[in-house]
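Question: Hello, beginner here. Any chance you could explain the protein record under this note? Any guidance would be welcome.
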Amino acid sequence: MTPARRPARIGFLLTQLGSLAAESFAARARELGITPPEAGAMRILGRGADMNQRELAEKLGVAQSRVVALVDSLEAAGLITRERSTTDRRNFVLHVTDPGRELLARLRSAAEAQEEELTEGLSADDRDRLYELLLRLGDARGLDRDVHPDYRGGSAHTDR
């Protein structure tokens, strides 16, 4: 008789690595003077498509009132501007400023350094395979590749 196979604990291991990754990114974002939710919003806005606050709230999956405070913070830091829409005067279109684009480049470097740290010990092929497997798992569960679920839940990782 074959002994029962012990559960792999995949969920536990993913949670451990996810917490480590979130803490590492939060620290790197703090060094750049922003919070992880601000970094996420900047990343979405930095994709180039003009969007208003309502569209950003929809993309992030949060209440529009929560995005107003986020946009206020990013605007006060000089990272984005709000301009009245030329097609609908009730809306403001969000634009990334030059300092915002510079921040996005520094965020990209920070994210790449974090990824190198997190995957240290894996070959390039292993990293590619892990990435593909994680994408498949996320896609099968309907996760948005651009939005971190902690943003929606107001995680502790939002501290400056």
Q: What stands out?
A: The two ends are 56 Å apart (CA to CA). The helical segments are 10-31, 36-45, 53-60, 64-76, 98-118, 124-140, 149-153.
